[in-house]
TrEMBL record:
Cellular localisation: Cytoplasm, Cytoskeleton
Organism: Galeopterus variegatus (Malayan flying lemur)
Residue segments, region Disordered: 1-24, 746-805
Biased composition (Polar residues): 778-787
Listed name of the protein: Kinesin-like protein
Residue span(s) of domain Kinesin motor: 417-740
Encoding gene (name): KIFC3
The entry's keywords: ATP-binding, Coiled coil, Cytoplasm, Cytoskeleton, Microtubule, Motor protein, Nucleotide-binding
CDD domains documented for this protein: KISc_C_terminal
Keyword Nucleus annotated: no
Family: Belongs to the TRAFAC class myosin-kinesin ATPase superfamily. Kinesin family.
Binding site for ATP: 500-507
Main location: cytoplasm
C-alpha cells in the first residue's frame, strides 16, 4: 500500500517539475550561467548520484529480485511444507486421525454391543438354569444329582459374580474409551485450529508476497520516468534537483520499504519457525496420544480377551451342564414317551368309555327323572303301607298293652295282691352257744312254702307264699320280688316290707352289705336296666325319697333338716292322692347316684342318733322310688311307686317291763305294726273300709297298698331256740295276713278295681270286723302240707291284733 502511494507521488511530482521551469536576463544570465554551472555540477553530481542510484536501484532491483525469488522460493517451500504438512496431517488423520479412531471406536462399540448381547443371552441362560434349579427337585434324597445340583448352584453364583465383575470392568473400559475419544476429539480440534492458523499465515504470506511482487513491478515500472526526470534535470536543473530530492526521498522511502520488507520477512521466518516448532510439538503430542491410544487399545484388547475367555469358559460350563441336564431330560422324555405309548391304548379305551358314559350321562337326567318318579311312587306307596302297618301295629300294641295289664291284674288277682314270704337267717356268732343257740326251724324238702318251728318242744308248721332257708342268697330273695319291681315300670304301686324281731335280718334283706347288696339296691339296678331297655320307646325318670317314722313322726332322711316332722296331706288338685310337703326327692340316673343317696340318708340317720342300731330297730325306714314314664309314640304316661320298708323290730318290748321312752317307742311300734296288719287284712279281705289312717306308716303308704297295688311282706325269722317265741308270733302274723278268707262282699268287690278315693274312713282296728285267720298246727295236728288244703281248712280266729304287745 505504501509502495503504491509512494509510486504515484514520485510520478506526479515528476510531471509537475517539468512545468515549473522559468526564463532569465543577462545578470540573470550570469547568475543563470553560474547557476547553470552549479546546476551542471549539481547535474553531474546528480547524474553520479543518479548512476549511483541506478546502480543502487539495479542493486536494489537485483536485491529485490533476489529477495523476491528468495521469498518466492521461501513461499514455495512453505507451500510445499504446508502441503506436505497437510498431507502429513491427512496421513496422520488417516492413520491415527479421527476416522480411524472413530472406526476403531465404532468397532469397539459394535464389539461392546455384541458382548452385551452375549451377556444378555448368558443371563437368559442363567435365568433358565435358575428356574430349572428353582423347580421342586425330584425327591431322591442322597442321590448324586442333588450334590451336583448344589455344585452347579455354587458355580452359577460364582459365574454371576464374575459376570457382575466383568460388567463393572466393561463399564470402566467404556468410560476410558469415552475419555480417550473425548481427548482425541480435543486434539483434533486443536489440530484443526493449528491448521486454520497455518492456512491464515499462509494466506497472509502469500498476500505479502503478492504485495512485494506488485511493489517490485511498480518499481520496475518507475525506471522510465526516472530517465525522463534525469533528462529533464539535465534541461532544468531545478526540476532535476527537485526530482533528485524526490528521488532521494523515494529512494529513502524505498529503502525503508526494503527494510520493512526485510523486517516482515524476518517476522515471517520467525513465524515459520514457530509454526515448525508448533508442528513438532503437535507431532510429539500426536505421537504421545498414539502411544497412549495404542496402550489403551492393547489393554482393552487384553481385557476383552480375558473377558472373552471367561465368557467362553462360562458358556462351555453352562453348555456342559445344560447338556447333562438335557441328557437327563431326554432320558425322562424317553421314559415318558414309552409311558405315553403304553398309556395310549388305555387312553383310547378310556376315551371310548368316556364317550359312552357321556352318552349315558346325556340320557341320565331323563332316566333319573323316571327312576325318581317311580321311586317316589314306590316310596309313597311304601310310606302309606308302613303308615297303615304302623297304625295297625300301634293299635295291636295298645291292645297288647291293655291285654298285658289285664293279664297282670288277673295274675295278681289269682296270686293275691298281697304276698307273704319268710326268710330265715343263718345262726350267727351273736346268737351265742349252748341250748339257747340251737336251731329251732326246719323246712319241708318238698314244699318251699312250709316252715316248721319247734316251740317249747312242740312243732308248729306255717304255710306262706314262699320260705327261704338260711342258705338262700340275696339274689334268690331278689328273684322272688323281681316281678313286683318291674311292674312298677308299668305304672303299678308296690310295697315291700321287711317284718320281724330285731336281729332277724330285716336290714340285711333290704339294704344288705356293700359286698352283697339287698333288695333296695338291686331293685334300683333292675329298674335302671329295664328303663334302658325300653329307652327307645319310653322316656323314664326315676326319683328317690328316703324317710323315717319314729314314734309316729315322719322325718325326711334326705332333707337338710332331718329333725323336722313332716305331715301327710291330700293333694289340693282333688285327685285324692296323698303327698308329703317338704319331702326331698332326688332324681337318680345311675347306680352311683343311688349309692350317694343311700350314703346321704345313712349319714343323716347316723348324725341324728347316737346308737344307730338301737334306733334303727325302733323306727321304720322307707325308701320311696317313683318311676315316671312317657311313651314316645302314644304319649301314654305312667307313674309307679316302689316303697321299700325296713320295719321296726316286732319283738314284745312291753312284756319285759319297759318304761318311759322305751315303753312309748314300743307302743308306737305296736300301734303302727297292728295298723299295718289291719290294713293288709282289710285289703286282702276286700273290705269296704281300710284303716289307712290308723298310723303314719299305713297313711303314707295308702296309695301303694290300695287298688291294684302289690304288696310283699318278707317275714324275717331268727332260727335259734331262744327266739322261738318271737318267731312264733312273727310267723303267726305272717300267716294271718296271708291266709285271710275272702268274704262274699269282698268277692263282689274283687270284680271292681280299687282306688285310694274309694277308701272309707278308718274305724279302730278292734271295732273292725276282722277277717278270719288262724295259725295252724304242725303236720301232727292233721293239717295238710299242701297250700290249697291248708287254705281250705283255715278257720276265722277272731283275734283282732296280729302282733301282741
Ligand atoms: P334286723 O334289721 O332285723 O334287726 P339285721 O339285718 O341287722 O337284723 O341282722 C342281724 C345280723 O344277722 C346281722 O349281723 C346280719 O348280718 C346277720 N344276718 C341277717 N340275715 C342274714 C343272712 N341271711 N345271712 C347272713 N347273715 C345274716
Ligand atoms: Mg334293722
Amino acid at each position: 500500500m505504501n509502495v503504491e502511494k509512494t509510486g504515484r507521488r514520485l510520478f506526479g511530482s515528476g510531471r509537475c517539475s517539468s512545468l515549473s521551469g522559468s526564463p532569465g536576463a543577462a545578470p540573470m544570465v550570469h547568475r543563470m550561467v553560474e547557476a547553470m554551472s552549479q546546476l551542471q555540477e549539481e547535474k553531474a553530481q546528480l547524474q553520479e548520484e543518479l548512476v549511483a542510484l541506478r546502480e543502487r536501484l539495479a542493486l536494489c532491483d537485483s536485491n529485490q529480485q533476489g529477495t523476491s525469488t528468495q521469498l518466492q522460493n521461501q513461499v514455495e517451500n512453505l507451500k510445499e511444507k504446508l502441503i506436505s504438512q497437510a498431507q502429513e496431517v491427512s496421513r496422520l488423520r488417516s492413520e491415527l486421525g479421527g476416522t480411524d479412531l472413530e472406526k476403531h471406536r465404532d468397532l469397539l462399540m459394535v464389539e461392546n454391543e455384541r458382548l452385551r448381547q452375549e451377556m444378555r443371552r448368558c443371563e437368559a441362560e442363567l435365568q433358565e438354569l435358575q428356574e430349572l434349579q428353582a423347580k421342586p427337585a425330584t425327591p431322591c434324597p442322597g442321590c448324586e444329582h442333588s450334590q451336583e445340583s448344589a455344585q452347579l448352584r455354587n458355580r452359577l453364583s460364582q459365574l454371576q459374580l464374575e459376570v457382575a465383575e466383568n460388567k463393572g470392568m466393561l463399564s470402566e473400559l467404556n468410560l476410558e474409551v469415552q475419555q480417550k475419544t473425548d481427548r482425541l476429539a480435543e486434539v483434533e480440534l486443536r489440530l484443526k485450529d493449528c491448521l486454520a492458523e497455518k492456512a491464515q499465515e499462509e494466506e497472509r504470506l502469500s498476500r505479502r508476497l503478492r504485495d512485494s511482487h506488485e511493489t517490485i513491478a511498480s518499481l520496475r515500472a518507475q525506471s522510465p520516468p526516472v530517465k525522463y526526470i534525469i533528462k529533464t534535470v539535465e534541461v532544468e536543473s531545478s526540476k532535476t534537483k527537485q526530482a533528485l530530492s524526490e528521488c532521494q526521498a523515494r529512494n529513502q522511502h524505498l529503502q525503508e520499504q526494503v527494510a520493512m520488507q526485510r523486517q516482515v520477512l524476518k517476522e515471517m521466518e520467525q513465524q515459520l519457525q514457530s509454526s515448525h516448532q508448533l508442528t513438532a510439538q503437535l507431532r510429539a503430542q500426536i505421537a504421545m496420544y498414539e502411544s497412549e491410544l495404542e496402550r489403551a487399545h492393547g489393554q482393552m484388547l487384553e481385557e476383552m480377551q480375558s473377558l472373552e475367555e471367561d465368557k467362553n469358559r462360562a458358556i462351555e460350563e453352562a453348555f456342559a451342564r445344560a447338556q447333562v441336564e438335557m441328557k437327563a431330560v431326554h432320558e425322562n422324555l424317553a421314559g415318558v414317551r414309552t409311558n405315553l405309548l403304553t398309556l395310549q391304548p388305555a387312553l383310547r379305551t378310556l376315551t371310548n368309555d368316556y364317550n359312552g358314559l357321556k352318552r349315558q350321562v346325556r340320557g341320565f337326567p331323563l332316566l333319573l327323572q323316571e327312576a325318581l318318579r317311580s321311586v317316589k311312587a314306590e316310596i309313597g306307596q311304601a310310606i302309606e303301607e308302613v303308615n297303615s302297618s304302623n297304625q295297625e301295629l300301634l293299635r295291636k300294641y295298645r291292645r297288647e298293652l291293655q291285654l298285658r295289664k289285664k293279664c297282670h291284674n288277673e295274675l295278681v288277682r289269682l296270686k293275691g295282691n298281697i304276698r307273704v314270704i319268710a326268710r330265715v337267717r343263718p345262726v350267727t356268732k351273736e346268737d351265742g352257744e349252748g341250748p339257747e343257740a340251737t336251731n329251732a326251724v326246719t323246712f319241708d324238702s318238698d314244699d318251699d312254702s312250709i316252715i316248721h318251728l319247734l316251740h317249747k318242744g312242740k312243732p308248729v308248721s306255717f304255710e306262706l307264699d314262699k320260705v327261704f332257708s338260711p342258705q338262700a342268697s340275696q339274689q334268690d330273695v331278689f328273684q322272688e320280688v323281681q316281678a313286683l319291681i318291674t311292674s312298677c315300670i308299668d305304672g303299678f304301686n308296690v310295697c315291700i316290707f321287711a317284718y320281724g324281731q330285731t336281729g332277724a335280718g330285716k336290714t340285711y334283706t333290704m339294704e344288705g352289705t356293700p359286698e352283697n347288696p339287698g333288695i333296695n339296691q338291686r331293685a334300683l339296678q333292675l329298674l335302671f336296666s329295664e328303663v334302658q331297655e325300653k329307652a327307645s320307646d319310653w322316656e323314664y325318670t326315676i326319683t328317690v325319697s328316703a324317710a323315717e317314722i319314729y314314734n309316729e313322726a315322719l322325718r325326711d332322711l334326705l332333707g337338710k333338716e332331718p329333725q323336722e316332722k313332716l305331715e301327710i296331706r291330700l293333694c289340693p288338685d282333688g285327685s285324692g292322692q296323698l303327698y308329703v310337703p317338704g319331702l326331698t326327692e332326688f332324681q337318680v340316673r345311675s347306680v352311683d347316684d343311688i349309692n350317694k343317696v343311700f350314703e346321704f340318708g345313712h349319714t343323716n340317720r347316723t348324725t341324728e342318733f347316737t346308737n344307730l342300731n338301737e334306733h334303727s330297730s325302733r323306727s321304720h325306714a322307707l325308701l320311696i322310688v317313683t318311676v315316671r314314664g312317657v311313651d314316645g309314640s302314644t304319649g301314654l304316661r305312667t307313674t309307679g311307686k316302689l316303697n321299700l320298708v325296713d320295719l321296726a323290730g316286732s319283738e314284745r318290748v312291753g312284756k319285759s317291763g319297759a318304761e318311759g321312752n322305751r315303753l312309748r317307742e314300743a307302743q308306737h311300734i305296736n300301734k303302727s305294726l297292728s295298723a299295718l296288719g289291719d290294713v293288709i287284712a282289710a285289703l286282702r279281705s276286700r273290705q269296704g273300709h281300710v284303716p289307712f289312717r290308723n298310723s303314719k306308716l299305713t297313711y303314707l303308704l295308702q296309695d301303694s297298698l290300695s287298688g291294684d297295688s302289690k304288696t310283699l311282706m318278707v317275714v324275717q325269722v331268727s332260727p335259734v331256740e331262744k327266739n322261738t317265741s318271737e318267731t312264733l308270733y312273727s310267723l303267726k302274723f305272717a300267716e294271718r295276713v296271708r291266709s285271710v278268707e275272702l268274704g262274699p262282699g269282698s268277692r263282689r268287690a274283687e270284680l271292681g278295681s280299687w282306688s285310694s278315693q274309694e277308701h272309707l274312713e278308718w274305724e279302730p282296728a278292734c271295732q273292725t270286723p276282722q277277717p278270719t285267720a288262724r295259725a295252724h298246727s304242725a303236720p301232727s295236728s292233721g293239717t295238710s302240707s299242701r297250700p290249697g288244703s291248708i287254705r281250705r281248712k283255715l278257720q276265722p280266729s277272731g283275734k283282732s291284733r296280729p302282733v301282741p304287745v
